[in-house]
Amino acid sequence: MSCNVKPSAEEKAAKLIEGLTIEEKASLMMHPSAPVAITAPDAPVKEIPAYNWWNEALHGVARNGKATTFPQPIGMAASFDDALLLDVFTAVSDEARVKNRLAKEKGHVGWYEGLTFWTPNINIFRDPRWGRGMETYGEDPYLTGRMGVAVVRGLQGDVNAPVLKAHACAKHFAVHSGPEWNRHSYNAEVSERDLRETYLPAFKDLVVKANVQEVMIAYNRFRGVPCGASDYLINTILRGEWGYKGLITSDCWAIKDFTPGYHNYSPDKTHAAAAAIHAGTDLNCGESYEHIPDAVAKGLLDEAEVDRSLLRLLTQRFRLGEMENLPTPWDGMSEDIIEGPEHLALARQIARESLVLLQNDGILPLAADARIAIVGPNADEKEMLWGNYNPIPEHTLTLLEAIRERCADAPYVKGCKLVLGSSDIAAVLDSLAGYDTVIFAGGISPQLEGEEMKVSFPGFKGGDRTSIELPQVQRDLLAALHEAGKKTVLVNFSGSAMGLVPETSTCDAILQAWYPGEEGAAAIAEVLYGDVNPSGKLPVTFYKNVDQLPDFEDYNMEGHTYRYFRGEPLFPFGYGLSYTAFEYGEPRIKGRTLEVSLTNTGSVDGVEVVQLYTRLTSDTEGPVKTLRGFQRVPVKAGETVKVRFKLTDDVLLSWSESACDMVPTHGTWEFQVGGSSASVKTVVREM
Q: Beta 509-512 vs 487-493: how paired, if at all?
């Protein structure tokens, strides 16, 4: 009697490697990977097909035609709804599988048609001037970890299934949060505490809790060594302490950055390729791994190290099913799901939950018959709603169109451009005669903030910002509307925190809209007219101005984010208003459970994001407070509910000098619970 045991994906990959030349191996370790013919009679496949590793799904399958376009991640973070985010990215990976199948049916899987997605970006948005911060889930490590885990689970599905649904990729590892202009030469120096307490926890969560299949190294150096060559980051921490078994990919052309003119770490591309592979960077987006054969020939690199990385790459290609064209559970999915009703409903719901009401003097919600005028440079903009790294949806309402669905005769006056030029304020006011209420669609745009951009307007530099103020031309127009007696609702579109101090006086309401995706304008209209009660909370601190911030290039956490900021912000982390009011009781601890009562004291139903913060009282050098839990809690008007948090070891994590890491810690703890980081009730307990 014999057993017919099928070889594992790793065994199949190892069999293929046996017959490859060093040149073929090198070609398979780059994006895009070239096809390689296999002649061995006992090989599991006759050809290793070409493969494009680079695909994007930051908030929808990107750069590959139409797909459902969800809000920019910073907006989705404002929902504090990781359960909904899981549904969102399950929908994204469904669309990805359909697009991949359609590409295969055409006979060629091209760029942005593969199953390996270089998302999510889980870097900490430590400074509002960073242009790519809008790709992240905010400034808090715990929130970023919770949301990032949901993204990974939604994209990858069951990682123990016979065929993987897709890859997610945790990026950019590590200590990368701008500026954009110097990322190819910057050396990040931070304390071990800041590294372990702020910059690494989300990466650890994605590795340990979500089994993320890829990690992307950052462009910058860390303590003098490019991240893609860092033995400490890759082998001591990622593969050693956390037990990571997946792939490590370079950011695009990051290994070239090891060379003179950038990091000056390696004398040439041959040495750079050797350094990266030796450290364990398996895949090169770029051309540096063309020099692998030369590195082996010169004795800079052992071919066994090449085989180690290639084994990981080919194993994953077998696991994704694309090497053998295996049948998958997603083969029967119709392409009608792409921007179909169910996915658009998800986009609408996450957009609703992303909107943050920052100020309301009673003007909102608007009456159904209110005479409304629409002003502002973002009112009739579609592409602004899509953010960056985006799909191209087939149908997008602008805010102007969404408002006119309710108020067909609402006049529109652009009034000014986003940044440059001046406004004919007298003409604008003349055109608004007879209209007392103005919806002003302002803010900035992904054309001004983002990744390494050629932008040099006042307040902007290379994708980053030098000022966080609302551009002066908009500020002047808002002030004039106020002086003219207009009631103004500012709908602020931005991927980052804005300095809105004057606008708190010139505007009657402020709604932070982020870049809310293809269903975002309709969701904004629902909130403005009271069909939806806003529930979003800020995932970043809104500072008053840049004078409250340390130097942009200072990566030390002191002074950055609500956890280490000692001043008074304009709007604190976790803040967001509702059309109702919530009252918290005094928190109580019973055993290892914190309980607090929450009452909706208003006249409409609402959802409150209840937030749990902690502080170890003996840790005098630690954060002011740290988020360790949150729950979205629906409460009907007049109703009181009980909210409970389990005080697990993960809630009691604190920095240990002796362990050189974050560990569960005994001591006297402050537990703070409330509706924002600045509005909490406290209970102290020895734990």
A: parallel
* Whether the bond into 179 is cis, omega within 30 of 0: yes
Contact between 209 and 166 under an 8 Å Cβ cutoff? The reply is no
Contacts of 373 (CB under 8 A, 6+ apart): 410, 411, 412, 413, 432, 435, 437, 438, 439
Residue-wise pLDDT for 145-164, tens only, equals: 999 999 999 999 999 999 99
State the average pLDDT over residues 31-54. 93
Is 670 one of the annotated active-site residues of the chain? Answer: no
Q: Rounded CA gap, 469 and 466, in Å? A: 9
8 A C-beta contact, residue 349 and residue 532? no
185-220 pLDDT tens trace: 999 999 999 999 999 999 999 999 999 999 999 999
Q: Which of 94, 135, 251, 282 is catalytic?
A: 251
Could you state, in order of their start, the residue ranges of all structural domains in the chain? 336-564, 582-686
Cβ atoms 499, 470 nearer than 8 A: yes
pTM over 0.90: yes
CA distance 563 to 197: 11
Fold of domain 582-686: Immunoglobulin-like (2.60.40)
The rounded distance, in Å, linking the Cα atoms of 669 and 645 is 15
Asked if 324 is an active-site residue, the reply is no
DSSP codes of every residue in 553-572:
T----TTSHHHH--S--SB-
Question: Which among 449, 508, 519, 526 is annotated as catalytic?
Answer: 449
Confirm if 117 and 166 have CB atoms less than 8 A apart.
yes
Q: Do 55 and 117 meet the contact criterion of CB atoms below 8 Å apart?
A: yes
What CATH class has 336-564? Answer: alpha beta
CA distance 513 to 387: 12
